[in-house]
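Request:
You are asked to prepare a plain-text protein record giving the amino acid sequence and the backbone structure tokens, at your earliest convenience.
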Amino acid sequence: MNLKDKIPLWIPSNERLEKSNLKKYIDWVNARFNLSLNNYKDLYLWSVNKIEDFWLSIFEFGKFIYSGKIVSILDYQYKGKKVAPGVKWFNGIYLNFAENLLRNRTNNTALISYNEKGLQSKITYYELFQKVIVLRKFLEQTGIKEKDTIAAILPNASEAVIAMLAVTSLGAVWSSVSPEFGLSAIIDRFSQINPKLIIAVDSYFYNGKYYDISDKVKDIAVNLNSKPKVIIINKNNEIKEEFDFVWKEIFNLQLNIDYDNFEFEKFPFQHPLYILYSSGTTGKPKCIVHNAGGTLLQHFKELYLHTDLKPEDTITYYTTCGWMMWNWLVSSLQNGSTIFLYDGNPFYPKTKILWDLIDEYQINIFGTSPKFLSACEQSGLEPIKTNKLDSLKTILSTGSPLTCKNFQFVYEKIKKDIHLASISGGTDIISCFMLGNPILPVYSEEIQCRGLGMKVECWNENGQSVIGEKGELVCTEIFPSMPIYFLNDPDYKLYNEAYFNYFPNVWRHGDLIEITERDGIIVYGRSDATLNPGGVRIGSAEIYSSVEELPEVLDSLATSVNIEGDSRIVLFVLLANNELDENLKNKIKNKIRNDLSPRHIPDYIFQISEIPITMNGKKVEIAVSKILNGLPIDNKEALANPESLNQFKNLKF
């Protein structure tokens, strides 16, 4: 179908457009900067051509709590180079991330925590503030201070939010994974960040099964050089005295806190806030450090303007604490909205549980993935017939590109009058490059727009910006939520290799995209070797470290194949003296599940006779991925054994 022949699947009503936060912001910007912006295109062009004015507008419009005075909005350490290392945003400004998320102190509901066993808790904003201050005081008394790193192994529940806010309120740095991660996967991450303290659950439920991880938590603490103390959250076990502190006991302490006069210490705008993890394609996952001020502003822009989140709204995202969407979701607190936290299998105890919960708790914004929507369709669900969904105004989706079938399913089987917003960004920027827009129409297979302040372009191999063609996603202006640094990378070598070396001094993200003539964006998947099943970035090196411990496996290669718009992991194994039968396949899958996580398990496993390698002995994942996805291969001369690529042709999936 020709682009111009596409019919919008959804057009915002005049009432919704007029009441949108984005319309309110456009009017404010016009008055503040003496402009006459008429639509989103005008606003976007202004935002990327007047970078400093734009981010100043977000800072002022967001009415954040801060001290100090702006000395400069943007300073470059490297004159003439718009690259992130050394760049300083909002010199002279001091703020506290947690304080800004807790600026609402009302009795309105802040958090609803729900898991497979049912409702766990409802917490008001004032109760959340009190719990955060109690834990903060305890952490302070145990010696936690500014820039200490705290690691967490927690489910998507209220305790995780309380803990994160308490940690970051002290100026300490937060890093979390989800409980289903395997021992080696967690140690690979936490051994690099040297946490002073671990906050963990002793157990969790998933798909109706009970998992005790208390021994795993002890093993992790023992195996870390930093020898962290442990706060244990007893979900289903009796209290075990072998841990240093017990969560429930902390909140029974008499700490004599004057809540009404409590003041948060403020830190520089670019103070470290979160450590997130790269995919680990070429080794252990890299530790990406994000800053407080940039995260605060970027999330406000995306939630308030692009998502149209209002104080009266309830928002949820199906995520875990090991994915950046959890960090993004929790930032909804700064808007005074209610966050619905769900922990467990999204199809248990019944396939339509999440749709029922949307009705029961009047959820307005529901975040999910194409994989979930496809699974709903395959299960025969038709929420448009079985549920009211009268509260639901927006469905967000990320993790992989939404397919034509996904768009069709949403508008035919879920709800006709719904804003379906595909969003795309990543761990690297703890936010989005392209996302939804409440004042623009929705077209099948397209992301509605580039994010405000994000000068995203599609570049061909010659570094030329193209429209209507496939190319690399680049961002040609810097933005405040770029990582401030990687850990253990004092000269920014790994940082620059990750983002700025492909096109010198320009951020190249590793996504294959197309910008359409109407400024929509089509994402075709990853352009590098990172595995991305269901939107969870996975490094092949992690899989290798697990599967190659098996005596039957001499070597392996992991890559991905795109099937119906989703990325599927394909594992190729070079075996010792074995044939690949179902027993060995199950053994490999179980090993990966136990060592890493269920998300690392390959969808397909094939036996091969030779691993393709470069002249330097590196596995050639990208070339194999191109073969599987029907793309041409270039630079075969870089391979030591190019004939080995023939075995990957004509495989059936």
User: Anything to note?
Assistant: The mean pLDDT is 92. The CA atoms of residues 101 and 333 lie 5 Å apart.
